Each structure stands twice: as C-alpha cells, then as structure tokens.
Amino acid sequence: MVDSIVLINKSFNNQNMVTELPISQNNRKYVLDYIDWGSIQSTRKTYKFINQIGVYVTGTTLESRDIAITGWVVADTYTQMKERKRFLNNFVNPLQQLTLVYNDYSIDCIPDTTIKYGSDYKDNNEVLCKFVIDLFCPDPLFYTSQSKQASIADWLPKFHFPLVIPQNDGIIMGLRSPSVIITVNNPGTIETGMTVIFHARGTVVNPYLININTQKQIKFDHTMEPGETLEVTTHVNRKSAKKISGGVTTNAFNYLDFENNEFIQLAPGSNYLRYGASNGMSNLEIKIEYRPQYQEVQE
Fold first, then answer.
1. Which has more confidence, 4 or 181?
2. pLDDT at 13 over 70
3. How far apart are CA 238 and CA 231, in angstroms?
4. Using CA atoms, how far apart are residues 67 and 163, in angstroms rounded to an integer?
5. What is the pLDDT of residues 168-209, one digit of tens each?
6. What are the strands, taking DSSP E only, across 212-283?
7. Which residues face 47 on adjacent strands?
C-alpha cells in the first residue's frame, strides 16, 4: 500500500517558489487517496519462415508508463482552499517536468493535463476537493534516488591519530589499492548506464576500463596531464564524454577510441571491471557512479 509520495518541480528552483509537493495520508493539506502506477507494455520484433510454427523473437523494447494520482485538497476556510488550489494549478504544468519520489525510488514524468478537480459539490466544496494528476513517463523505469559509487583505482587511507613521526623516519599515510579489478553489484532488475570518472595524479597514457564479463571497454587515445579528469556517461539516452582541466570543461568524444570503444552498461547482478593504461597506470584513479533501475517498486 502506498501512503506517501513527493512530487518535485525543478523548474521552480530559480523562481524562489516551493519545489516539492508532499501528498500523503498524513498530510493535512494534500491527502493521498490512491495511486495507479500503471504498467509497462512491451513491443516485440519477430519474423517467421514459410510453414513455421510460432515466430522467432529478435528483440523486445519497453514502452512508456502512465501514472494516475488521486487525492484530496483539505482546508479550513474557502480562502485557504483557493490558495491551495492555486498552488496545485501552478505546480502541475504540462510544459514542465516533474520527478515523483516514492520511498527510495524516483521516476521522471510530464503532466498529461492540468489538474482535474471533482465536479460534484461533495467532491469540490469549501473544505474538501478531490483532484487527479495524470502523468506520462517517457522512461518507464524507476531509479534509486541516491547514486551508488565504486572506486577501482584509489588510495586507501592510513592516516590516524595520535600521530608520532619518529626522527629521521617516516610514516605511511596512504596505501595504493593493489587490485586492478573490482566487482560492481547492480541490484536493479535491468541493465543501467553509469558515469566513469578517470582522474590523473600524474601523466597517464591511453586509460581504459574493461567489463570482464562482456569484454566491452571504454578506451581513450589521449595522454592525461597531472590533475586532468576524463568523465564518460554511458546512459542510453544521454551519452557524453568530457575533459576537465584547469577548471575548464570541454568535449572529449574525439579522444575516444571508437574502434574498440563501447558505452558499457552494468547488467543486473555482479559486474567485474578492470582498469589499465598504456603508461602511468599508477597515477590513475577511477570512480564509478550509477543508479540501479527497477521495472516495478510497489511494496
């Protein structure tokens, strides 16, 4: 049973307006009645030969999702009811994108219509008014609200207190991670893209990251200078590659080795990733950020 959700309108960030709309069964302004999460329809590509029984399936795609939220505006006076309706009218705009947050998951959506209100007096009066919000989700998948992170090439901290440095001697304050392979777990139900961040502490030549499961890799034909960062995003609908050096960000697609390059996805379950470089591998740090995706999340 769903008893609480939050809608976020990021278009209001620069307008000094309230960006979040909590709708819950404990809210005294906007009470959640129920929510219909809809479902995801699939489309299959098939073919068949003469006299064949059944068909061959060559591929399956997932379509969009429709979500319907039904709730009640609650007020003590007619003036208060008008103010709360006015807020809803401004907040739910078919020209603006919303993010729906439920527990630890979120989904991006666009209002199909403006707010729908009850038409009968019992559903629309001075202190109680029924409303419906219809949402269209081009991407039907739910993401975890918080990104997960994994470090492959990194320094393990060794610094601790009390700190005593013996005379004419030293002390270890950090230790280079000895492993060039890391297991990245995707707990989601579908493969997901990620952001891979290559950072050079010193000169690094042609850095790369390989998915051992699939042998697909992200590879650059580029010599990284000390302090330089290369960042690759592999999400299907928003691939990007950029270089950050001296505080300046530039396009880095031209550095990718397209003969050997793939925009690696993380499959559900364990993914084994290995990093390397033609030279200067000890100067390379790599971090990965990703958000697992789920087809359904209702509990």
1. 4
2. yes
3. 13
4. 58
5. 555 445 444 445 788 899 999 999 999 999 999 999 999 999
6. 217-219, 223-224, 229-233, 240-245, 248-251, 269-279
7. 56
Cα separation, 44 vs 284, in Å, equals 43
List, for residues 208-258, the tens digit of each pLDDT value: 999 998 889 999 999 999 999 999 999 988 899 999 998 899 999 999 987
Q: Hey, which residues does 144 pair with through a beta bridge?
A: 105
Residue type, 182: I
Confidence grade of residue 152 (pLDDT, cut at 50, 70, 90): confident
Integer Cα distance of 87 and 7 in angstroms:
13
> Would you state the structure tokens that stand for residue 19, as one six-digit string?
């960006």
Run of H or E including 20: strand 20-24
Write the DSSP string, 179-231.
-SEEEEEE-SSB-B--EEEEEESS-EEEEEEEETTT--EEEB--EEPTT-EEE
Q: How far apart are CA 265 and CA 195, in angstroms?
A: 10
**Residue whose entry in the numeric block shows the structure tokens 């590509």:** 45
